[in-house]
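[audit] Reproducing an earlier prediction to check determinism. Same input, same settings, fresh worker. If the tokens differ from the archived copy the diff job will pick it up downstream; this log only records the rerun itself.
[audit] input (164 residues):
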Amino acid sequence: PARVREIQQVARLLAGRAEDKDSWARNVILIGDFNIFSTEDDTFAALDDNGFVVPPPIMGAYTNAKLNRSYDQIAFHTDPERLTWTENAGVLDYYQTVFTEADHPGIYDGFMKADGLPPSDPASYYSTYWRTHQMSDHLPLWCELRIDYSDEYLQRKLGPQLPG
């Protein structure tokens, strides 16, 4: 309940600013670890209820190291004529290239021992604890933004075109 209230308060405040007729900017992007377990939870509804939208390519994306929770979000409350996203978005799973399971025995085993924590099961300790403390237990989300609306702007300035 406390997490839901926190998200609700932040989302309501920022949505209000974006909708204020005197606001200098109508585009708000919420980015971060909201500890949302699922897009079906009340925590996610707190974003949705305040007009924030998560781009479809990252909606429900798993962002924790175990790939079973949607903790992190990029949510938009924007003027679609000024800022939108493209279909290019995703989760950067750096464990596919850094701290891979194959790297543990030959590359990182010595570093683990230097930490002074002799695990009873080194492979499990490596994949569930050690590497997450070297980087993070959250995987970063990314999203490409569309910010060039010059063609539409110029078309509006030209006004209706007469035939012929």
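[audit] rerun output stored. Observation attached for the diff report: The mean pLDDT is 88.
[audit] end
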